[in-house]
Specification:
One of its GO terms (cellular component) is membrane. This is Acyltransferase. This protein has about 675 residues and is α/β, with parallel strands linked by helices. The protein has 2 domains: about 375 residues, no CATH class; about 180 residues, Rossmann fold, CATH 3.40.50. It has 27 helices and 12 strands. A 6-stranded mixed beta sheet has the order 3-5-4-8-9-11. It has a two-stranded antiparallel sheet with strand order 1-2. Strand 8, helix 22 and strand 9 form a beta-alpha-beta unit. Helix 1 runs parallel beside helix 14 and helix 22 crosses helix 24. It is elongated. The relative contact order is 0.10.
C-alpha cells in the first residue's frame, strides 16, 4: 500500500480551465506574512499579553492557509498527471513536519525530567505518545482535557493538538480530491465549489452544534474543524486564477481588522469555536483571495514577517515548552516580561532548528528519499522517540524512591468518598441524585449541597453528624455554584444550563419536605458581580430557609496561585530541609484572594434571613491571614490550587464541630450537632 497512487478516470496531462496544471504553486510572499501574524497571535496569547487574550485564533488562520495550499498542490498534481500519488504526498508531509516535531519532543522530555518533580512529569507529559503520533487532539478531546483549564493547560504537549488536526486533514484530503477526480469534475469549477461548499457547511454545522453540546469535541476534533480547511480550499478554487484586485488594499485592511479585533475581543468565555471562529477564518480567507494579485501587500510581504513566517512551524513547536518550563528554570512565578523573554528564546531555538533540522529534511539532500522508505523510517522514528521518551520519564519517576515524594503525589487523589461513590454527575446530566450517609433511618436530616469546593467539607460533616442520630443527604455537582445565577462554564464553552436545571430540580424537590439543617457551599471564584453574589445567594436561601430549621453557607476556600502538590514537590526536591518551615513554602496571603470579599457578600445574604448563617472556616486554612500549603501538623492542605485535601479537612474536625455548635447555640437552635 505504501506505493499506492490514487488513480482516477481522468486522462493524464489534460489542461483544465479551472486552474493551471503546473504542480508547483507560485511563491506568494503574502502567505508567509499571514503565517507570521498567525504565530505571533498564538505566542502573544500564550505569553499572557493582555491585549491579545484571543490570540488562540492564530491556529484558525493556520487551518485556512493549509486548506488553501494543500488543495492547490493536490489539484495541480491531479490535473498534471491524472492521479494523486498518496504515498509521495504523505512522504513529503512527513519530511517537512516530523523531524522538527521529534526534536522538540525529545528536547522537552529531557529538560522536563530535570525541571519537574516525578509526579509532575507524569501529569504534564501524559500526551507524549499521542503528540509523537499526531493524535494528541484525540487524547485531549476524549480525556476531558480543556485547553483553557488549569491542570490540562500545563500539559507540555497541549499545543500539538492542532498538529494532530492538520495531519489528519493531510491523510483525508488527498482521498477527497481523488474522489473529485474519479467523478470527473476537477476541471469544472462550479462542481468543485459545490463539493467543497457541502463540506464547509456540513462541518460548520457540526462545529456549532458541538460547541453547545461538547465544546471539547468542537475544539479538538478534525470533523468539526474541516470547514476551515474547506474555506481555504474554496478560496483557492475560486480565486487562484483571478484573485481579487479591485480595492484589494481596502479588503486587506478589512481582513486584518477582522483578525485583529478577534484576537483582542475574543476569549474562552465566548464559547469558542462555534460561529465565532468564522470571523478570523473569513479574515484569513479574504487575505488569501487577494494574495495572488500583482500588488502584494507591502505589510504582509515585509522581510521581517516573511522571515518569521518561514519559521512559524518551528516557533509554534518550541514556544509552549519554553513558556511551561522556563519559569522554573529562571526562578519565580511567570511575569509578562519573563514570558516575552522566553518567547524570544523559543524564536531563537526555532531559527536554529529551522536551519539545521527542518530545511535539510524538507529541501536538502535528505528530502530525496523515496516515499516508501520515508514512511517506514518515519514510523520507526516515532516508535523509537516514544520509547526513548517513556524510558526517560520512567527513569526520573521510579516507584518507591522517596517516601516524601510519594506522599506528595498522593495528595492529588486525596478526595472525599462521595466521588468514588459516584455522587457527582458533573456536566453530563441534570439528574438529582442523593448520596445517603449517616443513619438512613434517623429522625433528624442534614441536607448538604455544594459544588466541588463545597463538597470538599463532606468528610468533616459526616464525622460531626455521624453519631447515628442524623440522616445525611448529599447533593453535589462540580463547577455548579449554589447561587441562582447563570454561569458560563469555560470547560464546556457555554452557559452551564445543566447546572441551572439541576439546581432548580433539586430546590423543587426540597420544597415538598421539611429538614432540620441544610448546609451549602460553593467556590468563591465564580465571575459574579457583588449584586449577583448577594441576590443570587439570597434567592437560594429564600427557598431553603422555609424548609429548614437553619441554613449554613460555608464560605468558599481561598484559591492559591500555584498548584500546591507540584510546588511542594519541587521545593522539597531542591531543598529537603525546606519542609521543616511550612510557612515559607508555596503560601499566599488571603488578602490577595477573592475569598474575604465573597465571604462579605455571603454575610449580607445570610443577614436577610433569621435562620441563615455564614460558616467561615477560612482562618483554619489561612491562620493569621497566610494560606498554607502545609499545615502545622505537616498535612498537605490543597490537592491542586483550589481544592482542599480530604486529610486536611479531617484533621480540622474538632475546630469545625466547635464552630458549628457555637454558631447554632448563639442562634438558640436545638438541632446543633452532637458533641465529640
Amino acid at each position: 500500500m505504501i506505493g499506492l497512487a490514487l488513480n482516477s478516470q481522468t486522462p493524464p496531462k489534460r489542461h483544465y480551465p479551472c486552474m493551471n496544471p503546473n504542480t508547483q504553486l507560485p511563491f506568494q510572499p503574502d502567505i508567509q506574512g499571514l503565517r507570521a501574524i498567525s504565530i505571533l497571535l498564538v505566542v502573544l496569547c500564550h505569553a499572557n499579553l493582555f491585549l491579545f487574550g484571543g490570540g488562540f485564533i492564530g491556529v484558525d488562520l493556520f487551518f485556512v492557509i493549509s486548506g488553501y495550499l494543500i488543495t492547490g498542490l493536490l489539484l495541480r498534481e491531479h490535473q498534471g498527471s491524472g492521479r494523486i500519488q498518496y504515498a509521495r504526498f504523505i512522504g513529503r508531509r512527513l519530511k517537512r513536519l516530523l523531524p522538527s516535531l521529534l526534536a522538540v519532543i525529545l528536547a522537552t522530555t529531557v529538560a522536563a525530567s530535570f525541571v519537574l518533580s516525578g509526579f509532575e512529569l507524569r501529569e504534564q507529559m501524559g500526551s507524549l505518545i499521542y503528540a509523537i503520533t499526531w493524535t494528541s487532539n484525540l487524547f485531549f478531546a476524549f480525556s476531558d482535557a480543556d485547553y483553557f483549564a488549569e491542570l490540562a493547560s500545563k500539559d507540555l504537549f497541549l499545543h500539538t493538538w492542532s498538529l494532530g488536526v492538520e495531519e489528519q486533514f493531510y491523510l483525508l484530503w488527498p482521498l477527497l480530491i481523488s474522489l473529485i477526480g474519479s467523478l470527473g469534475i476537477t476541471g469544472h469549477k462550479p462542481s468543485v465549489v459545490r463539493f467543497l461548499g457541502f463540506l464547509f457547511f456540513t462541518s460548520l454545522a457540526l462545529c456549532v452544534y458541538q460547541s453547545t453540546q461538547n465544546s471539547l469535541y468542537a475544539f479538538y476534533l478534525m470533523p468539526m474543524r474541516i470547514w476551515q480547511f474547506s474555506l481555504g480550499a474554496l478560496v483557492y478554487v475560486i480565486f487562484q486564477d483571478r484573485p481579487l484586485t479591485t480595492h484589494s488594499t481596502l479588503m486587506r485592511l478589512a481582513a486584518l481588522l477582522l483578525i485583529g479585533l478577534s484576537s483582542i475581543l475574543f476569549s474562552p468565555e465566548i464559547g469558542y469555536p462555534g460561529l465565532w471562529a468564522l470571523a478570523p477564518s473569513l479574515g484569513a480567507a479574504l487575505l488569501l483571495a487577494t494574495s495572488g494579485s500583482n500588488t502584494p501587500s507591502a505589510f504582509l510581504s515585509h522581510p521581517l514577517l516573511r522571515w518569521i513566517g518561514d519559521r512559524s512551524y518551528a516557533w509554534y513547536l518550541w514556544h509552549w515548552p519554553f513558556l511551561m518550563l522556563g519559569p522554573s528554570l529562571m526562578g519565580g512565578s511567570p511575569t509578562l516580561l519573563m514570558n516575552l523573554l522566553l518567547a524570544a528564546g523559543a524564536l531563537a531555538a526555532s531559527a536554529l532548528s529551522y536551519r539545521w533540522i527542518e530545511l535539510p529534511f524538507w529541501r536538502g539532500p535528505l528530502s530525496q528519499a523515496a516515499p516508501g522508505r520515508t514512511i517506514l523510517v518515519s514510523m520507526l522514528a516515532m516508535v523509537v522517540a516514544a520509547s526513548a521518551g517513556l524510558l526517560q520519564i520512567n527513569a526520573r519517576t521510579p516507584p518507591s524512591t522517596d517516601p516524601v515524594q510519594r506522599v506528595i503525589a498522593q495528595a492529588r487523589t486525596d478526595l472525599p468518598e462521595i466521588y468514588s461513590a459516584g455522587c457527582d454527575s458533573w456536566y453530563y446530566n441534570a439528574e438529582v441524585k442523593a448520596c445517603i450517609g449517616g443513619n438512613p433511618s434517623a429522625d433528624q436530616t442534614l441536607v448538604f449541597i455544594g459544588d466541588s469546593i463545597g463538597a470538599q467539607w463532606y468528610s468533616a460533616l459526616a464525622d460531626i453528624y455521624g453519631d447515628g442520630q442524623w440522616r445525611i443527604e448529599v447533593y453535589t455537582k462540580s463547577a455548579c455554584p449554589i447561587v441562582d445565577e447563570d454561569y458560563f462554564y469555560p470547560r464546556i464553552g457555554a452557559v452551564y444550563a445543566v447546572c441551572k436545571e439541576w439546581r432548580d430540580n433539586l430546590l423543587a424537590q426540597l420544597k415538598t419536605r421539611r429538614v432540620d439543617t441544610t448546609i451549602i457551599g460553593s467556590s468563591g471564584t465564580y465571575d459574579f458581580s457583588a449584586e449577583q453574589w448577594i441576590q443570587g445567594s439570597a434567592r437560594i436561601l429564600k427557598t431553603l430557609s422555609k424548609i429548614s430549621n437553619q441554613v449554613l453557607i460555608i464560605a468558599g476556600a481561598p484559591e492559591l496561585s500555584k498548584d500546591v502538590p507540584g510546588c511542594i514537590s519541587r521545593t522539597y526536591r531542591n531543598d529537603p530541609k525546606s519542609l521543616a518551615t511550612p510557612t515559607n513554602i508555596c503560601t499566599k496571603s488571603i488578602a490577595d484572594t477573592q475569598a474575604p470579599v465573597v465571604a462579605g457578600y455571603l454575610a449580607k445574604s445570610t443577614g436577610l434571613f433569621p435562620n441563615a448563617y455564614l460558616l467561615n472556616l477560612n482562618d483554619l486554612i489561612c491562620p493569621n491571614g497566610l494560606c498554607l500549603s502545609l499545615s502545622e501538623q505537616g498535612i498537605i492542605v490543597y490537592r491542586d490550587s483550589k481544592h482542599l485535601t480530604d486529610s486536611f479537612v479531617r484533621s480540622r474536625v474538632p475546630e469545625i464541630r466547635a464552630r458549628i455548635q457555637q454558631l447554632l447555640a448563639s442562634a438558640g437552635t436545638d438541632t446543633a450537632p452532637p458533641s465529640d
